[in-house]
Amino acid sequence: MPAHLEFLDLTVRYGKKKALDEITMSAARNTVLAIVGPANSGKSTLLKTINRTIDFITIAKVEGEVRISGEEVRSMPNVYALRRRIGMVFPLPVGLPLSVYDNVAYAPRRQGIHDKAQLDEIVERCLRDSVLWDEVKDRLDLLGTRLSGGQQQRLTLARALSLDPEILCLDEFSIAIDPVTTMKIEEVLTRLKEKMTIVLVTNLTQQARRMGDKVAFINDSQLVEWGDTNQMFNAPVKEITGRYLNGEFG
User: Fold this and answer.
1) Which of 48, 54, 67, 222 could form a disulfide with 6 if both were Cys (CB 3.0 to 4.6 A apart)?
2) In a 3-state reduction of DSSP, which class is residue 121?
3) Distance of alpha carbon 173 from its chain centroid, rounded?
């Protein structure tokens, strides 16, 4: 299966500190690549290279390549068009100071969609996909920042889905969500991968096992190993991989 997303000898430095060291791996279209590893191992930095939000960090220097459908992202002339193709959800909710409805409708409106019926359909679909619709359907005019923390995180997910991204990046999305809601969202994500590629950074190894078609283990800025989920959990090549996935450290 051809790669949809590729990292080729990707190295990122923050000043003299190396955050990622020659990372090479890929994800096929319509699959979930789950990335695990201890805190500060470089996982979030990896996500930032996909939509080039790494560009906002002035001391960051990127070497190597990140390709989407064979095209290197840093060679793309329109970075805004690139970011519209990549949905991004961070560990803690980042809500816009707008109503629930307008949070989700914001990006489609910026894309020129102003038909009320079309916006209504997008808002409802994205809120359903983020397992939030039933809780907010009668108060769509409520300020999004007045929702609970877990609800705001799901609103962030709904906003990320509002432009039908071809790649969805999730950076420990469940950190502010209760376990029951997390499982519901995992079920939704399993369906969503039929129309997008998902990169899931998680500190929950069992979530990686449930969700990932492939799992990558990053430790101390290096890709220790990556491969099919069953192989990674049942017969990892490196001893340290097995120790991490079994919860012996982290």
Assistant:
1) 67
2) helix
3) 8
**Helical spans, DSSP H, in the chain:** 43-50, 79-84, 100-110, 116-129, 133-136, 149-161, 179-192, 205-211, 229-234, 239-245
- Across 32-41, 89-98, 124-133, 224-233, least confident range: 89-98
pTM of the model: 0.91
Amino acid making up residue 115? D
Do 149 and 93 touch, CB atoms closer than 8 A? Answer: yes
pLDDT band at 178 (very low <50, low <70, confident <90, very high): confident
Q: Cα separation of 194 and 44, whole Å?
A: 24
Question: Which one-letter DSSP state was computed for residue 99?
Answer: B
Q: Coil, strand or helix: which one is 66?
A: strand
Give the rounded distance of the alpha carbon of 228 from its chain centre: 19
Q: Backbone phi, then psi, for 183, in 5-degree steps? A: -65, -40
Residue type, 211: M
| Integer angstrom CA distances of residue 3 from 31, 166, 168, 179 | 10, 13, 15, 32
